[in-house]
Structure prediction request, 295 residues.
Amino acid sequence: MTTIAFIGLGNMGGPMAGNLVKAGHEVRAFDLVQASKDAAAELGVGIAGSGKEAVADADIIVTMLPAGKHVLSVWADILPAVKKGALLIDSSTIDVESARKAHALAGQHGCLSLDAPVSGGTGGAKGGTLTFMVGGSDEAFALGEPVLKAMGRRIVHCGAAGNGQAAKICNNMILGISMIGVSEAFVLAEKLGLSHQALFDVASTSSGQCWSLTTYCPVPGPVPTSPANNEYKPGFASALMLKDLKLSQEAAQTAGASTPLGAAATQLYGLHNAWGEGGADFSAIVHLLRGRDAS
Ligand code: NAD
Prediction:
């Protein structure tokens, strides 16, 4: 049993903290929102009065917060109360620069740290089947891996500090671009009189094959479990795709990488959100490309 502090008990963090309790750890947690604390308490999570109170005596501290500024301010607040040699793990999706700043902060306080963003969404958080993409030293990874295994199925060490976030945004940039490509192909097929099923049957077994087509097919019919068959309920919301694409573009600018398709995808998802479908699954971008709602 390890004593774990958990800060940020939202849609993802609450069930993740619950899975740590299920695995036999003692978990003390904090969130700003009472309803989130109440929901976590029902899963057996101990609730502390503040972040500092939650981390006192903890061997491992996990944060699951909205963005880089929240992570940096929470880490700066709690670190003076964290015991030397403890491990801090941030599983939020944040910009690579803030992730590297957070690692530096932890180092200044004599603590180990990992950036460990996830994929798998709220279903994966509840089911303990998340994939963790992890950046940090070998020593920190060895310490953190058993705890991450209580919340996820696949734990990938991507290299040094910040590389977990780098892997996450590179992957999601591929995903955003590929979903737009697949959606454009279906819209073109409609204009050419080619059925959704016929395009799917060909492309899913040809060189056009990809996850956006075969798992998350953006039109109803060919893949019964895709969000398109469930009124485009997320899944992975378009607003979250936009967040991750923006992070990819910030990183590309800082690193001097040329990502013209990533930039175009960011613009299109920006339009999709402004169009009013930010809460829909990101595959609903097909509506924007078609220019109307009919499926
Ligand atoms: P959420 O908004 O539901 O939860 C964030 C929680 O952080 C909230 O409960 C909020 O009250 C709390 N919080 C904010 N500032 C705080 C502070 N100073 N101290 C304590 N608590 C504070 O968000 P979520 O859906 O759980 O996502 C969390 C992170 O995981 C985000 O970075 C998101 O991009 C990433 N993510 C989400 C999903 C998803 O499907 N929801 C999937 C992959 C990754």
About this structure: The CA atoms of residues 123 and 203 lie 28 Å apart. The chain is about 50% helix and 15% strand. The two ends are 51 Å apart (CA to CA).
